[in-house]
Design brief:
This protein has 345 residues and is an alpha+beta fold. The chain has two domains: 152 residues, PurM-like, N-terminal domain (60s Ribosomal Protein L30, Chain: A); 175 residues, Alpha-Beta Complex (Phosphoribosyl-aminoimidazole Synthetase, Chain A, domain 2), CATH 3.90.650.10. The strands form two sheets. The chain has a seven-stranded mixed beta sheet, sandwiched between helices. Strands 1-2-3-6-4-5 form a six-stranded mixed beta sheet, with helices on one face. Helix 2 packs parallel to helix 3. The model has no long low-confidence stretch (mean pLDDT 93).
């Protein structure tokens, strides 16, 4: 047993790039029967971030689960990122996390201190969120994986979905793109140590702070950007809302270096899965380069929130966001439904 084994060498794919491709998942889920329950306010019909179940007229429960293999070698940092990613779904739905349970797959070849550090990273992020960890489940597995099952609560009027964008809304993104590309470059040992730390800091930042910036504003729709990419999650928002979203490609926050590595072909497998599913669902301006398209389709691990809100609220949101990030910016606008749900300008 050793602490010298690199966690990323124990997995073929990293983070949210390890998710099953959207085309396969859609085909399987669409063939399964649907549960009917009057108290189930949000299920998986609109590909939303979590399920919402009514407890009474004043309280709904929000539940989500997420786990994945490591995208960094430091076990504590891996635990932080995995926890932040799982907690994000609660924030994207407008709620606050309350309880969490660990999900851990752990190889017998690794020292138990690595298990401790993974869990400690998760504990610290859950503590930062204000929730508590109350148990979990572990199994032996050659590929390490970690995440959380999270429950949160909210008033029914506070719930946000990804399918209520309104014509005229402005679209805001709160974290930069390129995480999947940069994690792939890191696995190939192409990044400096300082760059690896920069990417880890982005992934481990809780979307709690972006959610708090929405307080009191007329937010119509929200989702978080993870393995389905910016185009994919924008498509879910646009199709669920029966709208078209125009994405302003020159306004997208992108991690320095991501376009260069994408141009070199250093892109995760998940990008190809996303493109195969989405290729007929968006149009692309003729002057947009291949590497930018790849980044727009790049699977993100613990990405930012994608928020649809009236233009009158944009200045206030961006002003509030300056307290925790320099990345939040306007990246698109909502229009009446056109020929395609997504237009990249």
């Amino acid at each position: 047993m050793s602490r010298n084994i690199k966690l990323t060498n124990l997995t073929k794919t990293s983070g949210c790039a390890a998710k099953i491709g959207p085309s396969i998942l859609h085909n399987v889920l669409s063939s399964l029967p649907k549960f009917e329950d009057a108290n189930l306010l949000v299920g998986f019909d609109t590909s939303d971030d979590a399920c919402v179940y009514k407890i009474n007229d004043n309280t709904v429960a929000i539940q989500t689960v997420d786990f994945f293999p490591p995208m960094v070698d430091d076990p504590y940092t891996f635990g932080q990122i995995a926890a932040a990613n799982a907690l994000s779904d609660i924030y994207a739905m407008g709620g606050n996390p309350a309880t969490a349970m660990n999900l851990l797959c752990f190889p017998s070849c690794l020292d138990m201190s690595i298990m401790h550090d993974i869990l400690a990273g998760g504990y610290d992020k859950v503590k930062e969120s204000g929730a508590v960890i109350a148990g979990g489940h572990t199994i032996a597995d050659p590929t390490p994986k970690y995440g959380l099952c999270v429950s949160g609560f909210a008033h029914p009027s506070e719930i946000l979905s990804n399918s209520n964008a309104k014509t005229g809304d402005v679209i805001i993104l709160t974290k930069p793109l390129g995480i999947g590309v940069m994690n792939t470059a890191a696995k190939a040992e192409l990044l400096t140590e300082s760059k690896v730390k920069e990417i880890a800091a982005i992934m481990s930042m809780l979307n709690k702070y972006a959610k708090e910036c929405m307080s009191g504003l007329d937010v119509h729709a929200c989702t978080d950007i993870t393995g389905f990419s910016l185009i994919g999650h924008s498509y879910e928002m646009a199709s669920g809302s029966s709208k078209t979203i125009e994405i302003f490609s020159d306004c997208i926050p992108i991690i320095d270096g991501a376009l260069d590595y994408a141009k070199m072909g250093i892109i995760p497998e998940g990008m190809y899965n996303n493109f195969d599913y989405l290729k007929d669902k968006f149009t692309l301006a003729s002057d947009i380069k291949q590497e930018l398209q790849d980044v727009l389709l790049d699977p993100q691990t613990s990405g930012g929130l994608l928020i649809s809100l009236p233009e009158r609220n944009v200045k206030e949101f961006l002003s509030r966001s300056e307290t925790f990030t320099s990345y939040a910016r306007v990246v698109g606008q909502v229009f009446d439904k056109g020929d395609k749900h997504i237009i990249i300008k």
